[in-house]
Amino acid sequence: MADGEDTATLAAGPQPGVKYPLSVLYCGNCSMPIEYCEYYPEYEKCKHWLEKNLPAEFEKMVKLGEGDDGADGGGNDDDKKRQKRGGKGMMKAKKKDDTPKQVTISRAPRGKKKSVTVVTGLSTFDIDLKVAAKCFGTKFACGSSVTGDDEIVIQGDVKDDLFDFIPEKWPEIDEDFIEDLGDLKR
Ligand SMILES: [Zn+2]
Question: Which NCBIfam families is this protein grouped with (predicted)?
Fold first, then answer.
């Protein structure tokens, strides 16, 4: 009859699929239930204790631990999760998307009757400015040189021609990426 009594007493508690009696395993090192051991500063010592006294539980824990180090682990370590998120954020920030891709072409007066054409932004398309300057010089048979961080000055008014030539020479630069700044005053 002892069995019957037990069932009655525990009527509110037992749930299907759960083995009874419930046993909480306490760690001999930190005296906490063993699932809290990992939050204990001396977790390494706890592990040693578990390895000696509760080898089966120890194995489970080690497996969980390995999972956490992997790509998608058990995931009950909040700190590690946060670090991963931060890492991904850093990766995005590193991407070179802060400078919009944009080439500008403008005309600037040079002397009383002549003009020069100023091209900027080619380096936003990873184009070697020296190579580009040489191309322009050859194409338009005039002086062309790198004059700044991302600026080429072509001796002569070739602005209109550049709208055809640049997309032809570098197909990745669609005409839409080229902005006509008009006439600049220098
Ligand atoms: Zn412990």
Answer: DRP1
